[in-house]
Structures are given as C-alpha cells and as structure tokens.
Amino acid sequence: MNLLPLHPNIVTLKETFENAKTFHLIIDLCTGGELLDRMKRKRRYTEREATIAIQDIAEGIKACHNNYVIHRDLNPENLMYVDDNDGSTLKIIDFGISITFTSGQLFYNEPVGTLLYSAPEVIQEHYGPESDIWSAAVILYAFLSGTLPFYDIEFNFLKNYQLFDFYGCFVQPFLAGSRVFFAGSLCVLCPIRYVDGRVRVVPEPSAQF
C-alpha cells in the first residue's frame, strides 16, 4: 500500500505498529460498510447507481495500475463505502495479496483471489493487470442482475473446458452503456480489455438510467 498514491477510491494507510503478537494497520475510517452488505440489502442496483459505483472502482483500478500494482482480489468484500449515504464513495481495500508488476509482465502463479470473480487467465495461471478489469465487470454484472454470471458448479465446468465468454445473452437485458462495458471487460482476450493501461470503457450515467 505504500506504493499507492493518495486517491479517493483507494483506502489510505495512515500508520502501522506491532507488538509481540500482532501487526496493526491504521487506515481510513469507512463507516458505510462493505459493498457486499449493501448489495445484499438492495438486491439490485439501478443502472445509474451501478454506473456511479463502477466508475469509483475503475478509477481505483486505474490508480493501482498506473503505480504498477495489481490488486488480484477485487470482489464486494474488498470494497467499502465511506459512509451510509446513497452515492457514497467506494474505496478499494485489502491489498494483502496484491503484487507489483512491470509493463508487459505476466505472472505464472497458482490461482489467487476469489474464484467467481477471477479472470480466465488467472485460472489458467498466466495473468497480468487486465485480470482486475474482469473482476470489476463481474461486480457490475452482480450490481445489475442481483446474481453472478456463473455459480460454482458451472464455473468449474467452464474452467475445465476453457469456455468463458459472458458477452451475448447474459447482458442483453442491460442498457447500451453497460453492454459496451461488458463487451470490453468480460472479454476472454486480455488486450481487448485494456487500452494504454486504462480500463477500456466505463459507462457514463445518462438520462436513460
């Protein structure tokens, strides 16, 4: 976390201290709770609410990647709201398994992170920063549908047979801005998810939302 800049969408490490048994991190106070808890209460986000939230997540990812950090475990438990207000800012937290990278570098580690939010290349053990973009798109899908694209049994089947295309019938109920985001972010081909080190497309709020 010391490698990351002060940013409104990344939790700030204020101080650390340790005693004989524990190591303590002092971070921003986020009283709005985990994104997961709010998603459970709301069940579904409107497209406008989802768009505002995904913009926060995308800005946090961009700041991480601009400073050569891959989070590797983006999911609703690792995102927190600053307060309880509707439209509160989201912050990325928990960089416990994050890793630094250099331009063009791929990692060939065992899969890490939360399986149902993991990109295909993470499962296949050759991944880079694009994997965070996939995770963000899965979160957006959950915002809009109230479910994940696949559950454990289906995901294990897909993992075994290398079939991971979420674009198509899965996203047809959503409006155009979100469909464009999914086309760029839930794409098996990593380069299509990324242009010049940035999230390819982030949907903008509009009157139709």
UniProtKB/TrEMBL annotation:
InterPro entries: CDPK_Ser/Thr_kinases (IPR050205), Kinase-like_dom_sf (IPR011009), Prot_kinase_dom (IPR000719). Keywords: ATP-binding, Kinase, Nucleotide-binding, Serine/threonine-protein kinase, Transferase. PROSITE patterns: PROTEIN_KINASE_DOM. GO terms for molecular function: ATP binding; protein serine/threonine kinase activity. This is Protein kinase domain-containing protein. One of its GO terms (cellular component) is cytoplasm. Pfam families: Pkinase. Residues 1-209 form the Protein kinase domain. Belongs to the protein kinase superfamily. CAMK Ser/Thr protein kinase family. CaMK subfamily.
